[in-house]
Amino acid sequence: MNVMITGGAGFLGLRLARALLRDGLDGRPVGRLILVDRTAPRDLIDGRVCAMVGDIADHAFVASLPVAECEVLYHLAAVVSGEAEDNFDLGMRVNVDAARLLLECARASGHRPRLVFTSSVAVFGPLAAGEEIDDRTAVSPRSSYGTEKAIAELLLQDYARRDFIDGVVLRLPTISVRPGRPNQAASSFASGIVREPLAGIEARCPVPAATRLWLLSPRRATEALMLAVELPSAKRAEGRILNLPGISVTAGEMVETLAAIAGRAALDRVRWEPDPAIERIVASWPPRWDDSRARALGFRGDSDFAAIVRAYIEDDMQATTPLDA
Predict the structure, then answer these.
(1) Is 145 a catalytic residue?
(2) Is residue 306 part of a domain?
(3) Do the domain assignments include residue 67?
(4) What is the three-class DSSP state of 188?
């Protein structure tokens, strides 16, 4: 089986790549894995891996990708929320135009590849009292990033309706705890307030302690990406968009959990410094959604935030220093 991952040098792309090389996909080994990104992946030595470096929004580069040779495409490449808000043109170019280019290449391939696209909790607005979001709730984004992801969702659904692809959208909760350095995502603090204190470094939390987030660990996100391909085609076609399972937790509860695991010294390294711009974006995201359909299909969330912190310690902190690039 040949598989392509755009955003293949990113933290989630690399995690997925390693899992695919180790475990295969849909009961079959991966024969060739094409990782597409602006930079080549580091520390991934395997003869099955082919790194293709270029601009995912450049027509000539995307046309050069061996899409016709791949049974499975993962489209993870994206400009993150804070950067998309600061740079409208860049966000539209990467989050919308690049998605359309990849879909067109898949269409031109003529073999209806399986395509998994990662969307976000940001496609929704804040919840009204008593409201609950499910897979059929209309999107109502309050940020450029959320709007761009919603546009790409609609594109994938229509390409799938026309039988150009066999596609599915996974709406991801905020992923925590991410290894590596902070990025420009509005949700970056949801990893930083755990990752940095565990490394003995101060971290800044730009939202109030009562701010509630919908979270999923990288471990469970990777499992979901693989399961999305392994679902029978009929199951994918029943509803092309899935709200993935998560847990609802406040920023205050997150740091209290950190203290319970790593001691009060870790808690003391968190500084509460409001940032109105980040508060505004994060407050527009729903703190929960109905994930019953995804759970019925076999997707799993984390049991609680303590499990998320321990997964980070086991999977990432012990393997590398938390602030590695």
Answers:
(1) yes
(2) no
(3) yes
(4) coil
Q: Is residue 82 part of a domain?
A: yes
In a domain, residue 78? The reply is yes
Number of domains forming the structure of the chain:
1
Q: Is the pTM of this model over 0.85?
A: yes
Q: In angstroms, rounded to a whole number, what is the distance separating the alpha carbons of residues 21 and 237?
A: 27
CATH number at residue 81: 3.40.50.720
CB distance 134 to 290 below 8 Å: yes
Average pLDDT over the chain reads 93
Out of 74, 145, 159, 312, the active site residue is: 145
* φ, ψ at 319 (rounded to 5°): -90, -25
Query: What whole-number distance in Å separates Cα of residue 286 and Cα of residue 125?
Result: 6
Buried b (16+ CB within 10 A) or exposed e, 138-150: ebebbbbbbbbbb
The torsion angle over the Cα atoms of residues 289, 277, 96 and 181, rounded to 10 degrees, is -90
301-323 tens-digit pLDDT: 999 999 999 999 999 886 544 33
pLDDT, tens digit, 9 for 90 and up, residues 70-104: 999 999 999 998 899 999 999 999 999 999 999 99
Average pLDDT over residues 195-199: 95
